[in-house]
Amino acid sequence: MAFVFCLILAALVLFATELVPVDVTAIAVMVALLAVEPVTATFVDLNLLAEPLYVLHQPGDDISPLAQGLSGFASTATITVLAMFILSDGVQRTGIIQLLGAKLTSLTGDSETKQLGATVGLVGPISGFINNTAAVAILLPMVTDIAHEGNTSPSKLLLPLSYASMFGGMLTLIGTSTNILASQLSAELLGRPFSMFEFTQLGIVVTIVGTVYLLTVGRWLVPGRIQPREDLTDEFEMADYLTEVVVREDSPIVGQTVREAIAATELDVDVVQLVRDKRTFLEPLDQKTIRAGDVFAVRTDRDTLVELLDLDGLDMVPDVTVDDAELERASDQQNLIELVVSPGSSLVGETLASSNFRQRYDATVLALRRGRELFRQRMDRIRLKVGDTLLVQATVDSIDRLDVNRDFIVAKEVERPDYRKSKVPVAVGIVAAVVGVAALTQVHIVVAALGGSLAMVLTGCLRPGELYDAVQWDVIFLLAGVIPLGIALQETGGADLIADLFVLAAPGLPAILVLGLMYVVTAVLTNIISNNASVVLMIPVAVEAAGQLGANAFAFVLAVTFAASTAFMTPVGYQTNLLVYGPGGYRFTDYLKVGAPLQAVFAVVTTLGIAYFWGLAPA
């Protein structure tokens, strides 16, 4: 038990600090649980320990610790979540959500109330039937466009987008990966999995309450961090970091390639574009041979610019403001965009230098925004995180490639000719069939979801190679890694001990207050670590606590599920919060200011709703 608690503590610290990615932490936990018994058995053979440590089973039983430790990969929850990612992607590639968004955009105009209502009203119901993280990723560009076109701060809409996706995800079993995992744990511990619409009635209640909050109190509390501006260079405050220089006849860099000239200086400077003979060239520029009279737009700070002018024989171009119009004169289309680093991106933990960003994507990063922090110098040294927003200049072709790259979300609607619009009724019909089969027949949700995934490919909604890109593998490995931790907590008696302490901390309190306390503890934990990890840790505790109180254990499981799926108070509490952190320019405290009152309201509404719909008396 002591070993498991030490492992949980280490995991909590790593989950909260993200010194390593959360999925890597989860796999490390799984490896530690698998290794402890054979390693300590070896110590026993060497007379260094009296007996081995058993954490995944009881000594003398017929249960294989190896099977227990690897059970997360065979878990119905893990496979169901994987299949739901594929179903969500099949729907996304038809463009139906973008079509719905375009319809709503035409109705909102410049009214912030209509914009907010459209945002919340669209993402909530959608999140009940496709993964809510995917819903936010799909709708983020649309919401950003609505804000800019209606002269509204994007910050006023993006946080409500994230929050609405969370409570919308509570409308059905398949709205979030947390619901699916909680259903499996409930089946294992209580013999009662969640049905497709198990908690839809309470989901509707919290969705209505959450929507009213966001349209009233929340609207007043959400800050307008980013001003509505058409000019991205202005939004990223680039005035002192972008300039144009011309190459003199006597410049020592004449005849060198752009790459050679930059490498020789070792200064913090990026060449953004080249103007030569009234033609403008964008990336790739590295192999361009520099000529006298070439005009370069460069990103650097003023002190570095002075050094650059002296070293390389350059002069500043007078009376030129390097703004969006100047940077986009290479073509008649948009060359300047915002990119958001998406969950599961291969760039998370990498730097612009280590990922070879410029050469890899034929694009130049001008600035990086992380919440309220703006980086416009030495960006190549910053390790990227989910939600980081990059101001990027690239050709139209490069932007098209970036838009279909799952490592990024382009925070502006880009015309996508490859949407499979003819497949809209097919994809929607497949999702409806999965929901209907799982809800109305004896077919398990994992079978229905896998069947739906297969149907997406067979009907052409998805191509076979797209299956693997559709899955957020970090979530899959996170689930596979933390599920054995819950098993170890039960097998060692850790869940019993925590439940004992939980009940002792609230002596004599009515069951409904303990239920509310269970919600609050889970919500606080989820706002610090992964939502899926908090479910794995808290559901066994909830079941044990309910047993000691003589209360309805299923009600306590639901309290944990709702709390873990609605983490409003920090940007790290839920992936959708991270997705809007950079594009909204938020501060960490904004989530606390807006989310804490909503979390408190949900604690009351959820507790009372569970007591009303399911009762607290033992079944």
UniProtKB/TrEMBL annotation:
Principal subcellular localization: membrane
Q: Provide the alphabetized UniProt keywords.
A: Membrane, Repeat, Transmembrane, Transmembrane helix, Transport
Q: Name one GO molecular function term.
A: monoatomic cation transmembrane transporter activity
Organism superkingdom: Archaea
**In this protein, which residues make up the domain named RCK C-terminal?**
230-314, 322-408
Provide the membrane topology annotation.
Multi-pass membrane protein
The Gene Ontology biological process terms listed for this entry are: potassium ion transport
Transmembrane intervals: 70-87, 161-182, 202-222, 426-450, 470-489, 501-522, 528-546, 553-574, 594-617
Alphabetical GO CC annotations of the entry are: plasma membrane
Q: What is this protein called?
A: SLC13 family permease
